Amino acid sequence: MQQTVTAARVACLGEPLVLVSGDGDAHPAGAELNVAVGLAALGVPAGLIGRLGADEYGSLVRTELRRRGVDDSAVETDPHRRTGHYSKTTGTDETGERTTTSSYARAGSAASAMGPDLLDRTAVSAMLDGAAIVHCSGITAALSDTCRALMCRLLTERPNISGVLSFDVNWREQLWPDADPAVVVDLANRADLVLVGADEAIRVAGTGDPGQLRRILPSPQTLVVKDGARRAVAVDRSGDTTEVPALRVDVVEPVGAGDAFAAGYLSGLVRGEDTLTCLRRGHIGAAATLTVATDWAPPPPEAVLHRLLTCSQADWSATTVTAAGFALPEGM
């Protein structure tokens, strides 16, 4: 049943994908789609800007977006190109840590044909103009030359954008086999908010240290460095930092956790909350997604969410998360 959709407070621009599992099941996916779905689940009106093929996967994505309350009015359908999709396999590395390998089929997809002129479409312009936050990622720039030109125009000219421009680095080596990561660093430095994992920051910028990254990316208002199971650190232009340790999680599968973190953080930002609360929201979203095999998970019940956002640092650090849910300390 279709939910009522209100004007998007957060507009997410990127490629909608379909995740195809080994048993043939298919689920909507893609970094920016994951963020939009996560925001909608948190009660934040969200919309997606992108392109789908006129195929079964495209219909699946559009139906699911509407069911989850995501505005798809700026998602175009290409009658000639297919919807991108991917599969993933899980395993363990030499240390026993769980790993995921993704295999993409997105070359020549409908979204790969996006270009700078997409931003002039009536539906796209309207969504950008009405959004308090516009969220995008480095993945889109890797899809094609025209997509790279789209991202350059978006982040340089900011057409119809008066709100915060958010950029998740999302470095994917398999999409950039011969590319210079300086391209993504340059795009990131044009945004207002940058989110990056410490591990990918090392590969892209040569360091995962928040202070050193802040010097490499001086322009954004806020830089958020996600350091896996350890912590997340936000650094503003003046160098002031806010750090929140990650929750302890029994990890099932890691893909999608970064997108869930972004959705959580942005849900706090659009509500005008302080940085510490935004970081906690990010960790909560990531923790929930780490306990499922799909790319997103429902947020915890409202009462649990409120307790986690307002508890002491000691109680926060004592909370554990499993597939059964969030286990808060006794008496919280």
From TrEMBL:
Per UniProt, the ranges with Basic and acidic residues bias are 68-81
**What keywords appear on the UniProt entry?**
Kinase, Transferase
Q: Which InterPro entries is this protein grouped with?
A: Carb_kinase_PfkB-like, PfkB_dom, Ribokinase-like
Q: GO MF annotations for this entry?
A: kinase activity
Please name the Pfam families in this protein's record.
PfkB
Annotated region described as Disordered, given as residue ranges: 68-108
Matching Gene3D superfamilies: 3.40.1190.20
Q: What is the top-level taxon of the source organism?
A: Bacteria
According to the entry, every stretch annotated as the Carbohydrate kinase PfkB domain falls at 26-291
Residue ranges, compositional bias (Low complexity)? 89-108
Annotated PANTHER family: 2-DEHYDRO-3-DEOXYGLUCONOKINASE_2-DEHYDRO-3-DEOXYGALACTONOKINASE (PTHR43320:SF2), SUGAR KINASE (PTHR43320)
Tell me which family the UniProt entry assigns to this protein: Belongs to the carbohydrate kinase PfkB family.
Query: What protein name does the entry list?
Result: Carbohydrate kinase
Q: Which organism is it from?
A: Mycolicibacterium goodii
Q: What does the record give as the organism's lineage?
A: Bacteria, Bacillati, Actinomycetota, Actinomycetes, Mycobacteriales
